[in-house]
Specification:
By secondary structure, the chain is α+β, with helices and mostly antiparallel strands. 16% of the residues lie in helices and 45% in strands. The chain is built from two helices and 14 strands, in the order ββαββαββββββββββ. The strands form three sheets. An eight-stranded antiparallel β-barrel has the order 5-7-8-10-11-12-13-14. A two-stranded antiparallel sheet has the order 1-2. A hairpin with a 6-residue loop joins β11 and β12. The termini are far apart. The N terminus is likely disordered.
Length: 229
C-alpha cells in the first residue's frame, strides 16, 4: 500500500528481515541491546602458547643461574663456613709463671690444652698482667689473648706451645668462682690473626664458655666450647 510516496512494512517484510538477520555472519565483538541493557558478545579466546624462542631463552637463563650457584658453593673455601666450632680440655698453667712480653704489656700463660673440632691443635690463654684480673665479689674480669697453634701441646716440662700459629683472638672475659668450687667463665674476642685455611676468619667474633675444677684452693683443669661466627 502506498501512502504519500512511502511503502508500509507488512508482517511478511518483518519475517524476511528476520530471516536475513539470522543468516548474516555475527561479529564476535558486536554489541546488542537486550531488554534495554547493552551487552557485548565476546568469543572466548584460546590461551596463547609462548613462542618457542622465548621458552628456550627462559630455560637457558635458569640453567645459567644453577651453574653459577654451583660454582659459588663448590668454589667457596672450607674455612669460610660459619660458625667455626670446637671443644677444649685444658690445664691450669698460671702457677708455673710463664710470662711473655715487656713489662708494659706482659702476659701470663693462664691455661693450656687441646682443641678439637673444626680447628685442632694446642690452645693457650694469655692473661694481661696490666690491668690484670679485676675481682668484683665472686666475679673476676680480665683481658686475654687466645692462641691456637698447630700440633700437640708440650709434654713433660711445662712450656709454651711452639707450633705454627693458626688463629689468635684478643678479648675480655669474666670468671665466676663460687667459694673455690667448680667455676664458670665466659669470654668474647675478635680474631686478630688467621693463617692458612683459616684466613677467612680474620676479624670474626669469638665466643668462649666453660668451667673448671679446683683442688685445695687452686684451679686444676677444665673444659670449654669455642665458637667463631
Amino acid at each position: 500500500m502506498l501512502d504519500s510516496g512511502r511503502r508500509s512494512i507488512g508482517r511478511g517484510d518483518i519475517q524476511y528481515l528476520a530471516f536475513l538477520e539470522a543468516r548474516r555472519p555475527r561479529d564476535p565483538r558486536r554489541t546488542e541491546s537486550v531488554r534495554g541493557v547493552t551487552v557485548e558478545e565476546v568469543s572466548p579466546r584460546a590461551p596463547v602458547a609462548p613462542e618457542k624462542g622465548e621458552t628456550m631463552r627462559r630455560r637457558l637463563w635458569i640453567l645459567f643461574g644453577v651453574v653459577v650457584l654451583l660454582a659459588v658453593v663448590v668454589g667457596a673455601p672450607a674455612g669460610a663456613k660459619a660458625p667455626l666450632r670446637a671443644t677444649t680440655e685444658h690445664d691450669f698453667m698460671a702457677g708455673y709463671g710463664i710470662v711473655r712480653g715487656l713489662p708494659d704489656d706482659a702476659q701470663l700463660l693462664g691455661w693450656q690444652g687441646t682443641i678439637t673440632g673444626d680447628i685442632e691443635g694446642c690452645i693457650e690463654w694469655w692473661f694481661d698482667l696490666d690491668p690484670g684480673i679485676v675481682p668484683t665479689g665472686q666475679a673476676s674480669h680480665y683481658f686475654t689473648t687466645t692462641e691456637i697453634r698447630e700440633g700437640p701441646c708440650p709434654e713433660g716440662e711445662p712450656g709454651r706451645a711452639t707450633g705454627e700459629l693458626l688463629l689468635a683472638a684478643d678479648g675480655h672475659g669474666t670468671t665466676t668462682a663460687r667459694h673455690m668450687k667448680n667455676s664458670n667463665w665466659r669470654a668474647n674476642a675478635t680474631v686478630t690473626v688467621a693463617e692458612g685455611e683459616y684466613e677467612a676468619w680474620l676479624g670474626r667474633n669469638v665466643h668462649e664458655s666453660g668451667h673448671f675444677e679446683w683442688d685445695d684452693g687452686v684451679p686444676l683443669r677444665g673444659t670449654s666450647e669455642f665458637r667463631a661466627n
